[in-house]
Amino acid sequence: MNEIISRRLIVINLLESFSRKEMEDFTHFISCPCFNTNQHIVKLLKVLRKSILHKNISNNEIYQKIINLLSDNSGMSQQNELAILRVRVGVLSQLAEQFLTIRSLNNETACRNELLYNELLKRKLFSILSRRINQFRKKTVAKVKDIPYYHRQYETERGILNYYYQSGQWVQQDNLSLLNHQLDAYYLLSKLKLHITALSFMGTSAQKQYDFSDIEALQDILQLPLYRDIPLVKVYQATIDLIKLKNKQAYTKLLDLLDRYRLQLSDSDLNDAYIVGTNFCAHQIKLGSMEYYRLLFDLYQMMDKKELLLEGDFIPIGKLKNIVSITCRVGEFEQATYFIEKYTRFLRKDIRVNVRDFNLGTISFYKKDYQSAADYLYQIDNISLSYDISRRVMLVKSYYEIDAEYKETTVRVFRSMEKFIVEHRQLTSKDKTAYKNFVRILINLYRIRHGVTKMKIERVKEKLEAQRVNSDKQWLLEKAEMLSGEND
Question: How many CA atoms lie within 13 A of 370 on its CB side?
């Protein structure tokens, strides 16, 4: 029984990942005699779709339900029913995997061509193979030159070489030079992309370390004109330079290359490069370079115009949050509203309203309409850790601005945020310290502002300046300076 439950969970996980269209196609797939002749499998899928999938049912209940709904009242023993169900569930799982493989194969031209070329060669259908290769070459001339492109070209040239050899034409002609070029371009680009991934991982975790001697050994080859002048090689090299150098010159060079070669780059490669650019701008902002707010906003606008902000058919909630926040920081409130209206529909349905209200609250906050911001933010349910912390930060800032007189209830809200930060296990110790420092300075400023403490503003400013980490030192310094001016 445990083995059946394990198998059943696999097939349910597979089927619950299907879209509505994919499920309809899969239903037709298993009804086709070319793939399945067992009608019991068709019935099993029908039961799963109607009574099991996407329902909150325990493992044992699911198992019993399948048995009850599929039982033919033949008096068969439970042991035999279990054995038959085990086989049928296994077959259905295999069919689901086969269905996904075929769908993927339809989108993977290189793999499909490789299989077809090999079959045509085995059958010595040289004329058909030659026609298919010529057709493929014509179709791919104008396409973008990404890694899959070079993979497809390599598989095509490999098929041609096999064709020359098996048809006896290799004595008069061969394509080894072109085959080598396509293989080298595919390999070099794949290595550069993996190198970018490794550098990105190292940038987010000090524990990540890799041996880059292989990339260093490839530098001479990458400088050969045959490969150096490939647009994607230039873009990957510029991306690597930006990650390593972290300066504006490298950033400008990468953006110039992306603009120059935009028609020869895939959306995926454009998006990956722009993300490196956004990460660089965000890093510079953290270091205090205010000019990068505008540069990052310009980058988001550029990505929006090229339809690169979506990831598939959705937008991550963190990305939308960052876009709206940066757009507000540069005072482009109409554009922030545009981003919310355009991209909220690409969020999960269960969080759309909360994410929309959060981002509308962000606009109100940066417009200094603090009461409206508090009204939006107070009613929001938990979305994610990042959203929840940002919501709490904007709320305490809004209460600081709203209160015309001292309120102990507001201080309790400040303390509540500090308690939330301290007790949250997902936060690093550094982040906890940064947010705790922020809240404690905020409380001191709030009390000084309303004259309920003997602490002097100069002392608070000294403490703030001495802090090595603070989640928003700049904002606190601005408020401290305002209080100093009022005291003067």
Answer: 12
The set of residues, in sequence order, having a beta carbon less than 8 Å from that of 259 and lying 6+ positions away, is none
At residue 314, φ and ψ (nearest 5 deg) are -145, 165
**Separation between Cα atoms, residue 227 and residue 331, nearest integer Å:** 44
- pLDDT, average across residues 87-112: 87
Element at 437 (helix H, strand E): helix 429-449
56 phi-psi bin (left φ>0, alpha ψ -120 to 50, beta other): beta
Q: How far is CA 157 from the centre of its chain?
A: 34
Is the pLDDT reported for residue 3 higher than 70? Answer: no
In angstroms, the CA 273 to CA 278 distance is 9
Mean pLDDT (whole number) for 47-61: 77
Separation of alpha carbons 242 and 257, rounded Å = 13
Q: Please check whether residue 389 is in contact with residue 438, taking contact to mean a CB–CB distance below 8 angstroms.
A: no
Question: Quick one: how far is CA 51 from the chain centroid?
Answer: 33
pTM over 0.70? The answer is: yes
Q: Is 311 helix (H, G, I), strand (E, B) or coil?
A: strand
Select from 286, 348, 341 the least CA-distant residue to 317. Answer: 348
CA distances from 39 to 16, 20, 26, 30, 93 (A): 21, 22, 14, 9, 15
Full 3-state SS string of 262-286: HHHCCHHHHHHHHHHHHHHHHHHHH
Q: pLDDT digit string (tens) for 418-427?
A: 999 999 888 8
Contact by Cβ (8 Å): 36, 83: no
Query: Which residue do the tokens 């994410």 mark?
Result: 355
Rg of the chain in Å (alpha carbons): 30
pLDDT tens digits along 377-391: 998 988 899 899 999
Q: Is the dihedral of CA 338, 344, 345, 347 positive or negative?
A: positive
Q: How far apart, in whole angstroms, are the C-alpha atoms of residue 460 and residue 479?
A: 11
In this predicted model, what pLDDT tens digit does every residue of 292-349 receive, in sequence order?
999 999 999 999 999 999 988 899 999 999 999 999 999 999 999 999 999 999 998 8
Residue with tokens 């619950």: 16
SS3 1: coil
The answer to whether residues 181 and 226 touch, using CB atoms and an 8 Å cutoff, is yes
